[in-house]
Amino acid sequence: MVTRPERQAGSLARLIDRAGGRALCFPAIAIEPLRSPALDDVLRALASFQLAVFISRNAVEQGLARARELGVRACLPPAAAIGGGTRKALEAEGVLGAVAPDGPADSEALLALPQFEAMSGKRVLIFRGAGGREWLASALRSRGAIVEYAECYRRAVPATDVRPLLAEWSRGAVDAVTVSSGESLANLARLLGQAGCGLLRATPVFVPHPRVAVEARELGIAAVVEAGAADEEMLGALVAYFGRTG
Question: For the whole model, what pTM was predicted?
Answer without folding.
Answer: 0.79
